[in-house]
Amino acid sequence: MPNRRFADGEVVMGRWPGSVLYYEVQVTSYDDVSHLYTVKYKDGTELALKESDIRSQSSFKPRKSQSSSSSPSRRSSSRSRSRSPGRPAKGRRRSASQSREHKDDKKKIIQETSLALLKPSENNTRSYNGEPDSTEKNDMSCKTLEQKLKPALEIERALEQYSLRSRKEEKKKEEIYSEKKVFETVKTIEKASSKTKELEFGGRIGTFLMILFLPATVLYLLLMCKQDDPSLMNFPPPLPTFESLWEPRVFGVFLLWFFLQALFYLLPIGKVVEGLPLSNGRKLQYRINGFYAFLLTAAAIGTLLFFQFELHYLYDHFMQFAVSAAVFAMVLSIYLYIRSLKAPEEELAPGGNSGYLVYDFFTGHELNPRIGNFDLKYFCELRPGLIGWVVINLAMLLAEMKIHNQSVPSLSMILVNSFQLLYVVDALWNEEAVLTTMDITHDGFGFMLAFGDLVWVPFVYSLQAFYLVGHPTAISWPVAAAITILNCIGYYIFRSANSQKNNFRRNPSDPKLAYLKFIPTATGKGLLVTGWWGFVRHPNYLGDIIMALAWSLPCGFNHILPYFYVIYFICLLVHREARDEHHCKQKYGLAWERYCQRVPYRIFPYIY
């Protein structure tokens, strides 16, 4: 096996894929398996090139024009073959000279057009000098390519009839710039760039373990909460019987809840907005009616309570509801993966297209699976689980009053219900903001999001309320006031930071945002360096963690179990932050490095 020619860090000349142009690049790494060099252009774009596409700077010399390299005799013979018998010699010489100039101009046009059309989409839509390019121009269809290239190619062929080159060179030229060559190169680059190369969550083994570990974690937390002493010393909790985990009637109630929320989602109320552009330039439409669905759900729950329906039924069968939700999430994930196998390449998720079954099943293979206009991922993101979280908290409040013979709920239970109700109402009121999150724009819809939306959110996020039913905790009014202030601080940071980001993404030229400063990037987007985003890189995560702490403090300090949510949330956000850092570094290149120098702290100011 031959040794590599170029070392890491060496500055060489790299050919842009699909073109004949070379640019100055730096070698960053070499793959011994695929024998590809990873090189970095000056604007931060990273590509994998073959060794044959790389030349050393010392050996790189610009090609001489074909006319200067031809011998006089060949020029004479070629000219004599292309003359018209009835045309004067002077006119023939002028016509040949103009033809060569016109032909060279067309050759340059074809080369520049081919290079512009062959650039990768989104992250690599940058010119060599770092100026922003339009995504719509780069992501044109093959039909548009044919329309754009065909006239130039026909002119080129006509001019080649009077070419000074040999027939062999003429044939080679035609092959290089034929439509078929261009189309095949475009398809190859798009297919290669859409594959997921870097695996998260420990790759195939890690995702397989998480498919088993996540349901087991939910089961463990709920079993521990039902213990009289839910301390870590009592691990493992006694295993429940099958009858206590599964009941068909409970599964039927869960299905009724899911399809009731689906019905509310389909109601023709609320405005319709467009999401961010996809990789092919298309924008999907979404109906914003989550808050209306919440109001309709509240009216339905109020009607049940009016007719004396015992809502604490949820508490009595809480474990069975969790298992029913987990089974449904698994079935839904299998359906999503099977249908994704027939999805077009441009509709697959950039983070879930690795080619490994387990990994793609976990992360989600298809980006926006839809049944007609019914967007499955967008629906599950905010409806069944998030609204169900509020209903579960209310059921725990009523169960506490019944079990402990209280006329009013405890102050701790009121705080937990109020804080988390505010969080859910805020998410539904600002439903449009979710369209700019990575869950919608980057992550596919697979087991990770299906289980998270339908099981983890309603049954783990309500852990504090479930804990307080069996382990009541009394707090004083001053302590309650301090916890309330802490939650308000966290909510203010969370909401104002997200509002700044979402408004800037939607309309950076809004006069109301003129006070915000930003660093321009090669993608055409800007990185905020003032406001909350100039304080830390992820201020919304900081607000999330402060609120999570305020939700757990009403449970006291007798056990660590209510603080599992805080620990989990910190770990989750640190992981997301690391993923965001890696994604932004690849996407924005040198602009992200400048931003990190300007804003050194990630989540916690002066700490991390």
TrEMBL record:
Could you tell me which residue ranges the Tudor domain spans? 4-62
Q: Where is the composition biased (Low complexity)?
A: 55-75
Biased composition range(s): Basic and acidic residues: 99-110
Give the enzyme's main class according to its UniProt record, as a single word. Answer: oxidoreductase
**SMART domains assigned:** TUDOR
Q: In which pathway does it act?
A: Steroid biosynthesis; cholesterol biosynthesis
Highest taxon of source: Eukaryota
This entry's Gene Ontology molecular function terms read: Delta14-sterol reductase activity; DNA binding
Q: Give the main localization category.
A: cytoplasm
Recorded family membership:
Belongs to the ERG4/ERG24 family.
Sorted UniProt keywords: Cholesterol biosynthesis, Cholesterol metabolism, Cytoplasm, DNA-binding, Endoplasmic reticulum, Lipid biosynthesis, Lipid metabolism, Membrane, Nucleus, Oxidoreductase, Phosphoprotein, Receptor, Steroid biosynthesis, Steroid metabolism, Sterol biosynthesis, Sterol metabolism, Transmembrane, Transmembrane helix
Please spell out the taxonomic lineage of the organism that makes this protein: Eukaryota, Metazoa, Chordata, Craniata, Vertebrata
Q: How does the protein associate with the membrane? A: Multi-pass membrane protein
What catalytic reaction does the record list? Answer: 4,4-dimethyl-8,14-cholestadien-3beta-ol + NADPH + H(+) = 4,4-dimethyl-5alpha-cholest-8-en-3beta-ol + NADP(+); 5alpha-cholest-8,14-dien-3beta-ol + NADPH + H(+) = 5alpha-cholest-8-en-3beta-ol + NADP(+); 4,4-dimethyl-5alpha-cholesta-8,24-dien-3beta-ol + NADP(+) = 4,4-dimethyl-5alpha-cholesta-8,14,24-trien-3beta-ol + NADPH + H(+)
Q: What protein does this entry describe?
A: Delta(14)-sterol reductase LBR
Q: Which SUPFAM superfamilies match?
A: Tudor/PWWP/MBT (SSF63748)
